[in-house]
TrEMBL record:
Source domain of life: Bacteria
Alphabetical list of InterPro entries matching this protein: QdtA_cupin_dom, RmlC-like_jellyroll, RmlC_Cupin_sf
Lineage: Bacteria, Pseudomonadati, Pseudomonadota, Gammaproteobacteria, Pseudomonadales
Annotated Sugar 3,4-ketoisomerase QdtA cupin domain residues: 5-130
A Pfam cross-reference name: FdtA
Name of the featured protein: FdtA/QdtA family cupin domain-containing protein
């Protein structure tokens, strides 16, 4: 099974432009407790480099693009988030990195929990040990 799982989003666009709705209960597979977004990421700077013990997130580039690298400890998959209807699920215990941010990238993330640093696994060796 692919590590990359996109939400099945129906874009409600018309000739005025695009509209994407992400609705709790219908589209998002968890209760949304937090929303954050990354903007103005400097050229050549990657982010992420962690996994979460419990947190589940969905992420979408509402503007621009970046490349998401997912790793379950056995396999890695790279996928471009380059359209506002490409809403990816980042499951718990998935090491993830974001690379190649475009200057106009706005990466929107919906999260299943409030911020909790103790949920982070920031050491790749620790992550590998836990998923083995
Ligand atoms: P961090 O998780 O290190 O960012 P990334 O993994 O994308 O590179 O977060 C950067 C800083 O922001 C860090 O000091 C923690 C803080 N932060 C919050 O306070 N709340 C949040 O919801 C997030 C995601 C980060």
């Amino acid at each position: 099974m692919s590590l990359v799982r996109f939400l099945d989003i129906v874009t409600k666009g018309d000739d005025r432009g695009h509209l994407v709705a992400l609705e709790y209960g219908n589209d998002i597979p968890f209760d949304i407790k937090r929303v954050y977004y990354l903007t103005d990421t400097k050229e050549g700077v990657p982010r992420g480099f962690h996994a979460h013990r419990e947190l589940v997130q969905v992420a979408v580039c509402v503007s621009g693009r970046c490349m998401m690298k997912l790793d379950d400890g056995a396999r890695t998959e790279d996928v471009w988030l380059d359209a506002p209807d490409k809403v990816i699920v980042i499951d718990k215990m998935i090491w993830h990195e974001m690379h190649h941010f475009s200057a106009d990238c706005v990466l929107l993330v919906l999260a299943s929990e409030v911020y909790d640093e103790s949920d982070y696994i920031r050491d790749y060796k620790v992550f590998k040990g836990l998923v083995r």
